[in-house]
Amino acid sequence: MQVKNKIPTTIVTGFLGAGKTSLIKNVMENAGGRRIALLINEFGDVGVDGAILKACGNESCPESAIIELPNGCICCTVADDFLPAMEKILKMENGFDHIIIETSGLALPKPLVKAFDWPEIRSRLTVDGVVVVVDTPAVLAGDFAEDLEAIAKQKEQIGALDHDNPLAEVYEDQLLCADMIILNKTDQLQESEIEEVRAGIESEINRGIPIITAAYGKVSSDILLGIKAAAESDVNNRISHHENEAEHDHDDFESFVIDFPEVSDTGILHSRIVSVAEQCGALRVKGFVKIKNKPLNYLVQAVGRRVSGHFEPKAGTHGNLVVIGKKGLDKQAIKKILAG
């Protein structure tokens, strides 16, 4: 039961490219009169997601109420970055009805939930809920998560997991902390495929939380912003793979930014990004690119080999692409492929 007189805060997490920003953008556009503040965290040092959300120009969440924390994961820098950002929001004039935190795709939500037990914010904020956005087609294809059925069998047999795959580990930790799971991009799948992913997730968690489907991140704001979980009071029931670690970092992953010149058409851009995923193992590519003879910036987003994009009328400074992958990315090879 959510405590009265505390500002409810929703933590939106999910793996790289799952659709967190689309979900939040939809909430902002259908806020139902709520005044919303946003805290946006990205693993790369160029704020693509923040630029998208600032371009919305929505009265429920003006640009002044959007704080960006790029170049890292706030789950690793709670004291240095997260708490000061939350204090800044609390000091803003006129106040807010709700706060939304978008974590980076590599973040673990549990350290953030635990931070709400700190005296500085416990008396003023409560975690309304941890919402995990799942890239349903990616999970079905096994692009970043190990086979969930095999994981469940291993747990039954030996009571532990082999964590050789850091991608699966992050994904699972996000699920294990959830109060609600959004199976996103379900418009791309058959009902039987959606149910296959749902069954895999249900075998991984045992807390009886709601799992709902969505396309393009469209979920009612009344559902997302009214969970009333008070998750900071339930944090000990959210067991993760990192329970016994004194500290957690993201040494398994890295990101870098490429200064990207004008390209002749979007097809060429997409094919080069696919090559980067296939040949160099890039997990995520996103940014704004200038397309020849086009007046608007082109927002391109890729998850593995799946690339999409559209022209943005307001957002972004063209010429920067953020590339995220496992440690040891061949930066020179990636730059060469993208340059053509």
* Number of E-state strands: 12
Low-confidence stretches: 157-164
CATH H level, superfamily name of the largest domain: P-loop containing nucleotide triphosphate hydrolases
In the CATH hierarchy, what is the class of the largest domain? Answer: Alpha Beta
Give the CATH architecture of the largest domain: 3-Layer(aba) Sandwich
The total number of structural domains is 2
Beta content comes to 15-25%
Strand order of the largest sheet: 3-2-4-1-5-6-7
CATH domain topology of the largest domain: Rossmann fold
Query: In whole angstroms, how far apart are the ends?
Result: 56 Å
Structural class: alpha/beta
* Number of alpha- plus pi-helical segments: 12
Q: Whole-number radius of gyration?
A: 19 Å
Helix content: 25-40%
Give the topology string: H per helix, E per strand.
EHEHEHEHHEHHHEHEHEHEEEEH
What does this structure look like?
Helices cover 33% and strands 23% of the residues. The protein has 340 residues and is α/β, with parallel strands linked by helices. It folds into two domains: 7-237, 3-Layer(aba) Sandwich (Rossmann fold), CATH 3.40.50.300; 253-339, Hypothetical Protein Yjia, Chain: A,domain 2 (2-Layer Sandwich), CATH 3.30.1220. A seven-stranded parallel β-sheet has the order 3-2-4-1-5-6-7, sandwiched between helices. It has a five-stranded antiparallel β-sheet with strand order 8-12-9-10-11, covered by helices on one side. Strand 10 and strand 11 form a beta hairpin.
